[in-house]
Structures are given as structure tokens and as C-alpha cells.
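Example for tutorial group B:
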């Protein structure tokens, strides 16, 4: 998998912005991406040093539209911890 296909988008939620104080950043990643691929992609894209990667699969939610039930697709989330002294400037001011 190419490194630019690993990271889908940054997650800008209330919880993700509170994690910024601990040098942790959240991303939506490709479903088949591994921890080592995520680490390499973040290091190359943002020129930082990654110390730890936590990965979780978020299950899809079931929603109702009238009588019909529709389920969203599950997706993968990664929380990346940076080495001390490193920051991603893309998230500053958010």
C-alpha cells in the first residue's frame, strides 16, 4: 500500500483536540493499514518522529430511514503519539 493511501483524513473532534495537549493526534486510516505503515506515513507526511501508534476499528452505525435500516461501513482510526518535542503544525489553531 502506498504511503499516501494510508492516511485518509485527520479527525477533528472534541476528544481528538483534547488529546493534542498530550502530543497525540487522531487520523482515519485505510482499513488494511498496519501500525508500521501508519507510523511511516505520518513521519514522512509531517516530518515528525512517532513513538507509538494505537489502532481501533470503529463499527458502523445502524440508522433508520422510514421502514428501511441502513448500516454505515466500519472504519479504522489511529491515534498517533509523537516523541517529546515534536508537533504537527497542521493541527495548530483548530
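The residue assignment follows.
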Amino acid at each position: 500500500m502506498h504511503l499516501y493511501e494510508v492516511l485518509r483524513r485527520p479527525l477533528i473532534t472534541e476528544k481528538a483536540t483534547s488529546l493534542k495537549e498530550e502530543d497525540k493526534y487522531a487520523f482515519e486510516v485505510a482499513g488494511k493499514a498496519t501500525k508500521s505503515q501508519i507510523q511511516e506515513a505520518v513521519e514522512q507526511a509531517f516530518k515528525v518522529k512517532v513513538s507509538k501508534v494505537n489502532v481501533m476499528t470503529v463499527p458502523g452505525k445502524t440508522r433508520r430511514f422510514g421502514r428501511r435500516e441502513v448500516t454505515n461501513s466500519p472504519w479504522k482510526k489511529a491515534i498517533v503519539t509523537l516523541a517529546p518535542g515534536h508537533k504537527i503544525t497542521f493541527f495548530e489553531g483548530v
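Residues 3-84 form a domain with the Alpha-Beta Plaits fold (CATH 3.30.70.330). Compare this with the pattern of hydrophobic and polar residues in the output above.
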